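Why should sequence recovery work at all? Because a backbone constrains its sequence more than one might expect. Tight turns favour small or flexible residues, buried strands favour hydrophobic ones, and helices have their own preferences. The token representation captures these environments compactly. In the example below, the structure is given first.
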């Protein structure tokens, strides 16, 4: 079983929430049991729905897609069956709800609105959620079981070196061009009058809600959170540590359906309504408004940063020192402005993982060059900021080698070892589990040979 096949399967589950109970807006499919794994069944409709939606995504395969889908579902059933016997694996209602809310938001994002989702599925959101629950629970169980099977798999430096020496030239991965850079970020100042305007507007929204106006409607119309027009300002279940501290402090102290006073966070100003609380997680909706800097404030931020860049170019102050003293970006200023790639936690970025405004400049820059100031949107706060960047290092595209690319080679080999362990586990469970597959799939060219006994 190739790793990318498993990844494709898990992604399909996440995107479409497929399960025996998930019914899509297609014509009814005449159902039949096509496979039994222990006490679990796989229906023809499960395979048909997955097939329809993989085609909709443009997923293709050189083999028989329905056979591949069936095998992925067989593996999933093995994992779920084992997870249900493991007393250390637990899926809570809060976990299911959080995943379900995320999937509903993904549907809304893809289709444009909550009503469009209901029209597509031909049923209310509440019914869609109800039908998704069992499939999501199984997905979480199988994911936890897969993680447990491979949790103790590690690689040593000597193993990585040995594996690398035994790769053919074609198997050695090509490392794309990567960039390392530092930045200094300055926020335009917000006037007290602008902050007061925003807070007054939110207080008016709170008054209207308490007088009977729909919070959801006001959020859809006025909130500046991306996606609020379709979500009505509703967020999934979050724990205290997953939220901005100020937002969390206010939200966790609310009684259900009550609306908070105006709350300031790093994202702007909010009013918050508590929808539900389950254990240590809460579901809220909010209206977010961001004070806007004036044209004059933007010009001042640009000029300040331009002057600082000139001082750096004249060696009157080091870039690293200037970043620590003046940058408003808390994630990079203490490291002298060096930006960390959140996907790898290294300071190297392939061009496709760079911020688009940064990538336009950095690919044309020389080592140690300082850019001109440019306006961009801060990824964390979604607020307008001005930046200068310095290109620290550029590593051109090359075949991976131990000296420069050890971590990537180690990650690649670790993934292979985990896949080998998972394959061994599946083969062992095949021999120990009652499995029956309908004759219509008897000629499938499965990756594992022991499904049909």
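From this structural description, the recovered sequence reads:
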């Amino acid at each position: 079983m190739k790793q990318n096949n498993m990844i494709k399967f898990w992604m399909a589950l996440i995107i479409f929430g497929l399960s025996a109970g998930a019914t899509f807006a297609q014509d009814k499919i005449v159902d039949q049991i096509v496979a039994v794994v222990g006490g679990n069944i796989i229906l023809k409709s499960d395979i048909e729905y997955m097939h329809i939606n993989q085609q909709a995504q443009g997923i293709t395969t050189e083999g028989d897609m329905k056979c591949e889908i069936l095998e992925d579902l067989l593996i999933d059933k093995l994992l779920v069956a084992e997870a249900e016997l493991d007393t250390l694996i637990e899926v809570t209602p809060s976990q299911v709800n959080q995943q379900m809310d995320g999937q509903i938001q993904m549907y809304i994002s893809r289709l444009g609105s909550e009503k469009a989702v209901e029209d597509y599925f031909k049923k209310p959101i509440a019914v869609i959620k109800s039908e998704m629950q069992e499939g999501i629970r199984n997905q979480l169980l199988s994911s936890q079981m897969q993680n447990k099977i491979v949790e103790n798999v590690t690689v040593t430096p000597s193993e990585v070196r040995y594996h690398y020496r035994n790769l053919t030239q074609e198997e050695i991965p090509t490392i794309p061009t990567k960039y390392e850079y530092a930045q200094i970020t300055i926020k335009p100042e917000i006037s007290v009058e602008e902050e007061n305007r925003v807070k007054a507007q939110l207080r008016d929204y709170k008054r209207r809600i308490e007088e009977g106006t729909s919070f959801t409607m006001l959020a859809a119309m006025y909130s500046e959170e991306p996606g609020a027009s379709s979500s009505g300002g509703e967020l999934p279940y979050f724990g205290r540590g997953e939220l901005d501290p100020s937002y969390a402090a206010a939200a966790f102290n609310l009684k259900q359906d009550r609306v908070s006073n105006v709350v300031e966070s790093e994202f702007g100003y909010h009013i918050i309504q508590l929808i539900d609380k389950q254990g240590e997680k809460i579901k809220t909706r909010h209206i977010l408004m961001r004070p806007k800097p004036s044209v004059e404030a933007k010009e001042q931020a640009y000029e300040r940063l331009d002057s600082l860049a000139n001082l750096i170019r004249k060696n009157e102050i080091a870039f690293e020192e200037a970043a620590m003293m003046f940058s408003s970006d808390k994630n990079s200023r203490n490291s002298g402005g060096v930006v960390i790639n959140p996907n790898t936690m290294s300071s190297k970025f392939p061009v496709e993982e760079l911020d688009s405004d940064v990538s336009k400049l950095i690919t044309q820059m020389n080592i140690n060059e300082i850019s001109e100031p440019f306006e961009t949107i801060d990824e964390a706060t979604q607020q307008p900021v001005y930046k200068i960047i310095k290109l620290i290092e550029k590593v051109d595209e090359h075949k991976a080698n131990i000296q420069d690319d050890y971590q990537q080679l180690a990650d690649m080999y670790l993934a292979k070892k985990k896949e080998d362990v998972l394959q061994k586990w599946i083969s062992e469970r095949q021999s120990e589990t009652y499995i029956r597959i309908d004759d219509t799939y008897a000629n499938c060219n499965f990756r594992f040979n022991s499904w049909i006994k």
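A few observations help interpret the result. Residues 1-29 have pLDDT under 50 and may be disordered.
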